[in-house]
Amino acid sequence: MIPKLMRRSSQPDSLAKDRPPREWNPATFYIVIFLLIGSNAMQMIALRNEFTTFSRRADAKIGLLKQVIERVQKGEDVDVKGLLGTGDPEQEKDWERVIQEVEEEDRLWQAKTQRQEQKRTSKDTEGSKERGGPGGAPLSTKGTAEAPNTDDERGTFSTVGTPPPEFY
Known about the structure:
Strand content: under 5%
Shape: flat
Number of strands: 2
Radius of gyration: 35 Å
Order of helices and strands: HHHHEE
Strand order of the largest sheet: 1-2
Largest sheet: 2 strands, antiparallel
Structural class: mainly alpha
């Protein structure tokens, strides 16, 4: 019992060569594109649900902490360990997971703000160099009466900040 696809053909090769090749199905492109779009859409939904779950869990834990702190500040006799789940392995793991998620979110947020700050400072230093700020000479001499510089090799003239003629 050999499947038809794996059997050796009893037909001569000349019949197979006479057959025209199959043409490209025009719907293939759209099928592939829609599969990619659908996959990305499902990924976005999963990420949104995960973030919603994270937010709800963190908000619930923060709310519980606020309640405990308020009750302690009012001077009430509060069983802090009992309310926060100390001693219960499942609740302790849940607290640990929430704390790790909050710390990770905080690290990502701080890294993002640092990158934005670095970009802002690099743009500021580039802008100050163009304006002739600290450590930088002006790149353009618009509106200044300056003698043109000569290039020793070619003997051509150019003004400061203007590219040589081969770049025009």
